[in-house]
Amino acid sequence: MSKNIYVGNLSWSVTDSDLRNLFSEFGEIISARVIEDRETGRSRGFGFVEMDDAGAAKAIQSLNGKDVGGRGLKVNEAQPRESRPRY
């Protein structure tokens, strides 16, 4: 099984590769993605990491609040996206 982890308060310079490297010490990474603005391509300051359950629990505990690039990360289990009406 795998867990999807929300990673918030990322520095604007963090890349998918940086996110993968940060979490790799805790277990096998399935995917790591920094969310970008559709129009500008600039980081929106958060991302998601999918990894194995055991590693995810360790990563959340170890990285939540950790200073990375001068910013304290917010790391927790991702919640399902709420449906929004399309206009």
Any overview of this molecule?
23% of the residues lie in helices and 38% in strands. With 87 residues, it is of the alpha+beta class. It has one domain: Alpha-Beta Plaits (2-Layer Sandwich), CATH 3.30.70. The relative contact order is 0.30. Residues 3-80 form the RRM domain.
The CATH class label is: Alpha Beta
Instruction: Provide the spatial order of strands within the biggest beta sheet.
Output: 2-3-1-6
Q: β content, as a range?
A: 35-45%
**Total beta-strand segments:** 6
In the CATH classification, which architecture applies?
A: 2-Layer Sandwich
Number of domains: 1
- Classify the fold: give the CATH topology: Alpha-Beta Plaits
Task: Find the structural class using helix and strand composition.
Answer: alpha+beta
Give the SSE string.
EHEEHEEE
Q: Would you summarize the structure shown here?
A:
The protein is 23% helix and 38% strand. It is α+β, with helices and mostly antiparallel strands and 87 residues long.
What attributes characterize this protein structure?
four-stranded antiparallel β-sheet; 2 helices; 87 residues; 23% helix; alpha+beta; Alpha-Beta Plaits; globular; 6 strands
